[in-house]
Amino acid sequence: MNKKLLILSLAMLFSLPVSACASRTTPNAAANSADRFAGTWSGTLSFPDDANRTEDVILTILPGCTAGDVCGASNNMTVNCTWEITLETVNGDVFEYKFSKVLFGECPLTGHGTLTMQSDGTLLREHITPFFTASGVLTR
Question: Domain tally for the chain?
Answer without folding.
Answer: 1
